[in-house]
Amino acid sequence: THHHHDHSGGNEDLVRLLGGNTPVYGGDDRIPALTHKVEDRAAFKLGTLDVTPLFTVCHTRGSVSFNVKTATESAVFTGDTLFIAGCGRFFEGTPQEMHTSLNEILGKLDNNTLVYCGHEYTQSNLRFAASIEPTNQDIKNKLEWAQNNPVTVPSSIGEEKKINPFMRVAEPSVQQVVGATDLLKLLESCVN
């Protein structure tokens, strides 16, 4: 999904172990052992899977989320762009780019699309979300569930729209607590 070592640091070893013909897909030349540089929304097949790269820049300039579909299911691998109830740091991007990535790209996927994020920060993200929306019952329920389940991935796009403050910046309940109605200022204030 991006070039950071905790996501792609093992690529060269995997290629060596699996043989030199192992494909490595990504959207950034900084990804180790990259063999296939993808283009935004240029779908390709991996066996029976349909894969659509979605450029979701902000965490890095080359961040890509991969929407993977079968005939009956859809999943998206978001790396460090979208977490359960949170999002990644803006290392190489802007609040506008994160808003676009979360709400105009990922948020437009089918609500049943499963979300596989790059890190399991669910409990701390949900505590933060609860501090923004203390009366949001969906957040309360998800936090209680997460406290009793050591593995919280996957989520779904539909669930994220209910619990993720970064995908809820248009909600009056979020705007009121943060004290901003400008969506970009709101997104930036939630991160900082």
TrEMBL record:
Its EC number is 3.1.2.6. Keywords: Hydrolase, Metal-binding, Zinc. Pathway: Secondary metabolite metabolism; methylglyoxal degradation; (R)-lactate from methylglyoxal: step 2/2. GO terms for molecular function: hydroxyacylglutathione hydrolase activity; metal ion binding. It catalyses: an S-(2-hydroxyacyl)glutathione + H2O = a 2-hydroxy carboxylate + glutathione + H(+). It is an enzyme of class 3 (hydrolase). SMART domains: Lactamase_B. Its cofactor is Zn(2+). Pfam families: HAGH_C, Lactamase_B. InterPro entries: Clx_II_MBL, HAGH_C, Metallo-B-lactamas, RibonucZ/Hydroxyglut_hydro. Residues 1-119 form the Metallo-beta-lactamase domain. Belongs to the metallo-beta-lactamase superfamily. Glyoxalase II family. PANTHER family: BETA LACTAMASE DOMAIN (PTHR11935), TENZING NORGAY, ISOFORM C (PTHR11935:SF94). This is hydroxyacylglutathione hydrolase. It comes from Rhizoclosmatium globosum. The lineage of its organism: Eukaryota, Fungi, Fungi incertae sedis, Chytridiomycota, Chytridiomycota incertae sedis.
